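Most newcomers find our protein records easier to grasp once they have seen one. The structure tokens are whole numbers drawn from a learned vocabulary of backbone shapes. The record below serves as our worked example for the rest of this section.
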Amino acid sequence: MWKTLATGLLDLLLPPVCASCGLDTDGTALCARCDLHPSTLLPDAPPPARLASWTSAVSYEDTARDWVQRFKYPKPGLAGLDPAASAVARDWIRRATGRVPALTPDAVLPIPLHPRRLRERGFNPSALLAGHVARALGTRVELHRLRRVRDTPTQTNLSRGARWRNVQDAFEAHADANTSEVWLVDDVVTTGATLCAAARALRKKGVRRVHALTLAWRPWLG
């Protein structure tokens, strides 16, 4: 987890300049010239079953895809410290919180990685995003409320039906009588299968409404 701490420290120490062109900004990660044009922002998608809503910050294409990949797949070791990509992801996910059609949730939960996958990667991108969302809302992030109990293969090359089967019963949740509405945070979503599997586990434990918030949406191409 040292990479998470080091990136956060760099975010605090570096001056507020545009992560793309290096010009001074008003504290945002990208200047007005380099930020995404409003037409590239993703409209809120109709939520799949078990989700009360589904909101993504950007569409996973072109410049946005490059930034998301830098954030999600850093290089190993010190070479992987990329405060610019972290700052862009932070700004985009915080901006998207204002589009979620819901009141402040009881808790913000990241989609968890399986423990083996977390050890391999060294950090969970969704957990970093969930932390930004929780701070923007003034609520708490719960890292251990939801667990991934099956080490599922990557969804990348699977068909739509295989994606849903792959994550079936992959998650377990803990009950909490004080939690009726949560926001689930993930990095990239395609069909929504992982989000729905996690939402199903939470609803089985008494959560009434689950809203999904993701950094990027990648359209399903079949």
